[in-house]
Specification:
Number of strands: 3
Distance between the termini: 52 Å
Order of helices and strands: HHHHHHHEEEHHH
Radius of gyration: 22 Å
Largest sheet: 3 strands, antiparallel
Oligomer: single chain
Strand order of the largest sheet: 1-2-3
Number of helices: 10
Number of domains: 2
Length: 228
């Protein structure tokens, strides 16, 4: 391995190498399949899947540039640029069914609502919805479509999460210039909420206090306003 040959083994890589659970083995198997052509052109030895995973996790966790990762892991920058997207896809394919199931039942929504009330003292909440700007380089010929109100170019990730911050629904790629209400209005989530596709629990009564009412009122105003 490159790290061992140089006597330098990053802590991230050690943790990955020592993680031998079936879950990790499944991820590395997917990585091997998807990144066969992403090896270091300078070396005749193929890059180990554990190394590719460690580099990708460091990039995702810290935002380190490919140039920084090149020096930290002794892997060519062009190789990193090739395998990081593939490893991200491999992680998604390995865990998507567990983390983001295709279908959520009424019982699942009830459990989510129960968690919101237990953890956050917020009854009858089936998710928290918000958008996050992700900084990008200006795409060619895009004008001001990706230029946001914070004065930088971005694409928007809008997500619905449960009480433990786990994704229930996710949409990535909206224009940075769009507001949260515009993105929600044009998303696949809105018609699913309106036509009952999501199988949300039926309405029921609860003791409402002024503070909670204001929270829901503000949320509704934010996402349903034309100028949100």
């Amino acid at each position: 391995m490159v790290g061992r040959a140089l006597g330098i083994i990053p802590h991230d890589l050690l943790r990955v190498e020592n993680a031998v659970s079936p879950r990790t083995e499944h991820v590395t198997t997917v990585i091997i399949t998807m990144t066969r052509k992403c090896n270091d052109p300078v070396s005749s030895e193929p890059l180990e899947p554990g190394l590719k995973l460690a580099v990708t996790l460091r990039h995702l966790a810290t935002g380190s540039t490919y140039a920084d990762l090149m020096y930290a892991f002794r892997v060519a920058r062009n190789s990193i640029s090739l395998f990081v997207p593939k490893v991200c896809e491999a992680i998604y394919l390995a865990y998507k069914d567990e983390v983001m199931p295709d279908e959520i039942t009424t019982e699942d929504w009830m459990r989510i609502a129960s968690d919101f009330e237990r953890i956050w003292n917020l009854p009858h909440a089936c998710g928290a919805l918000d958008g996050k700007h992700i900084r990008i380089r200006k795409p060619p010929n895009s004008g001001s479509l990706f230029f946001n109100y914070k004065h930088f170019f971005s694409t928007v990730m809008m997500a619905l999460v449960d009480a433990d911050y786990k994704f229930i629904w996710l949409s990535v790629g909206s224009y940075g210039s769009a507001s949260d209400s515009q993105i929600f209005r044009d998303s696949e989530l809105r018609p699913m909420l309106e036509d009952g596709t999501l199988d949300l629990p039926p309405p029921s009564l609860f003791q409402m206090v002024k503070q909670i009412f204001l929270i829901f009122l503000l949320a509704m105003t934010h996402f349903l306003s034309d100028h949100g």
